[in-house]
Amino acid sequence: MEEHDVVTEAVEAAMVRIRRRQTRGALGKDSPVPIAVFRVLDAVAGTSAASVGALAPTLGVDQPRASRLVAQAVSSGHLERVADQQDGRRAVLRLTPTGHAVVTAARNGRRAAMAAAMSDWTDRERTEFARLLGQFVDALDRRET
């Protein structure tokens, strides 16, 4: 196996470990919010005008599954549908205060875990890692479009 392939394989393995850890650890074990619903809340928090149709590809699910997840988040009081200011026929999704609190707590937990993992790194190492990781994710995003 060529060195390039070994490096690529190591990056892929690390990314899989990160994904698994994030999926398990995004919420505490005792959270009343299922992970799939949290993913909806997290996605809505990352946009200014999310709709069910826009969420489906973001979540990697089909439209009916996205609709069911949104309905679950709405019925649990974490998300609300509001009229779009540009097009009153269209509904956009917005976090409720409860949903916002769930997302904020999870993000704070993730950031604390990341800070702890890099606690013995130098400022330069942390900065370089952030730069390279951002560059890597940007390149992946460009390949998807």
Radius of gyration over alpha carbons?
A: 18 Å
| Uncertain segments | none
**Which class do the helix and strand fractions yield?**
mainly alpha
Largest sheet: 2 strands, antiparallel
Distance between the termini: 30 Å
Q: What keyword list fits this structure?
A:
mainly alpha
Short structural description:
The protein has six helices and two strands; from the N terminus they run ααααββαα. The chain is mainly alpha-helical.
Task: Describe the protein in words.
The protein contains six helices and two strands. It is mainly α. A two-stranded antiparallel sheet has the order 1-2. Helix 2 packs across helix 4 (63-75) and helix 3 (52-59) packs across helix 4. The two termini are 30 Å apart. The mean pLDDT is 86.
Architecture blueprint of SSEs:
Elements: H1 3-25, H2 35-45, H3 52-59, H4 63-75, E1 79-83, E2 91-95, H5 97-117, H6 123-144
Antiparallel strand pairs: 1-2
Helix pairs in contact: 2-4, 2-5, 3-4
